[in-house]
């Protein structure tokens, strides 16, 4: 609509009407439909909408669950290889949420569970967690995938920031201290592994490791990065423990000679504890142990 600035007489309005094509019509006209009419634009519009590889994986996986096919399995593998770290975090969160909430048959949405915990900053954090485990509240509640509310004693702050702060406090004060005999580091705090002496020096070691697993699961659920640097070997063991039976059988079928397996274990030990490998394992591998006079069972 334009006002006629050059109108012959004042007060007259000149109106010009122009038809604008709908978005994507020009692109559809170039493609052309089977009957000659403009075809809709392809989806997704790569130039206008950012690609969401995690969302694409979810869509293909949903179709594959309904009607599995080898082509869709190949597509899922290709999409997973294209994911970066931020997309993998989104992908993992979506899978966790669908596993715990998405496959319900209820006609109405299920009310999420509420887990509440009150933390005392000045008290022993590990003892507070053990008390929660006995009472089955807080981090030890039956379901921590719903609303998780945290409140520090004598403080009024609530919300997601307080939840993240609690996770950091628990990681640093409940599980990392060497005196608790749960985790140990061989590289001056860069990586941590389960303490091999935990079963002998910590009478509550099983329950404490259960609480550690719950803390890791809660961090994954809320997409929180914990200041708890577990060694990559620990993460590898956790992923292998969650592998399917078919994957486990495939791994067992691989031709892996014992010598090659022992060499891989020795290299892995050297990456975990260089001092132990240097002063014990390396000497045993380089010398004839029969001269020691020990009747070794291996």
UniProtKB/TrEMBL annotation:
Enzyme Commission number: 2.3.2.26
SUPFAM superfamilies: Hect, E3 ligase catalytic domain
The entry's keywords: Transferase, Ubl conjugation pathway
Alphabetized Pfam families for the sequence: HECT
Pathway note: Protein modification; protein ubiquitination
InterPro entries: E3_ubiq-protein_ligase (IPR050409), HECT_dom (IPR000569), Hect_E3_ubiquitin_ligase (IPR035983)
Reaction equations catalysed: S-ubiquitinyl-[E2 ubiquitin-conjugating enzyme]-L-cysteine + [acceptor protein]-L-lysine = [E2 ubiquitin-conjugating enzyme]-L-cysteine + N(6)-ubiquitinyl-[acceptor protein]-L-lysine
Ranges for domain HECT: 135-279
Gene Ontology molecular function terms on file: ubiquitin protein ligase activity
UniProt name for this protein: HECT-type E3 ubiquitin transferase
Species of origin: Zooxanthella nutricula
């Amino acid at each position: 609509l334009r006002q006629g600035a050059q109108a012959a007489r004042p007060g007259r309005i000149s109106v010009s009407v122009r038809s604008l094509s709908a978005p994507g019509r020009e692109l559809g006209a170039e493609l052309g439909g089977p009957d000659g009419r403009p075809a809709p634009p392809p989806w997704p519009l790569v130039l206008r909408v950012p690609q969401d590889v995690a969302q694409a994986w979810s869509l293909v996986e949903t179709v594959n669950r309904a009607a599995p096919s080898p082509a869709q399995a190949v597509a899922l593998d290709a999409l997973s290889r294209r994911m970066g770290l931020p997309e993998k975090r989104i992908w993992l969160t979506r899978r966790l949420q669908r596993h715990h909430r998405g496959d319900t048959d209820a006609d109405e949405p299920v009310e999420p569970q509420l887990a509440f915990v009150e933390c005392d900053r000045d008290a022993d954090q590990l003892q507070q967690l053990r008390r929660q485990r006995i009472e089955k509240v807080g981090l030890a509640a039956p379901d921590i995938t719903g609303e998780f509310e945290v409140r520090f004693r004598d403080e009024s702050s609530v919300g997601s920031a307080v939840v993240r702060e609690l996770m950091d406090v628990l990681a640093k004060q409940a599980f990392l201290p060497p005196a608790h005999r749960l985790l140990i580091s061989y590289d001056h705090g860069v990586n941590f592994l389960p303490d091999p002496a935990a079963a002998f020096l910590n009478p509550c070691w099983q329950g404490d490791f259960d609480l550690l697993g719950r803390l890791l699961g809660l961090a994954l659920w809320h997409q929180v990065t914990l200041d708890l640097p577990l060694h990559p070997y620990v993460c590898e063991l956790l992923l292998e423990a969650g592998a399917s039976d078919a994957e486990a059988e495939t791994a067992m079928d691989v031709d892996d000679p014992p010598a090659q397996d022992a060499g891989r274990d020795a290299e892995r030990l050297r990456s975990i504890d260089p001092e132990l490998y240097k002063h014990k394992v390396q000497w045993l591998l380089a010398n004839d142990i029969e001269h020691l006079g020990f009747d070794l069972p291996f």
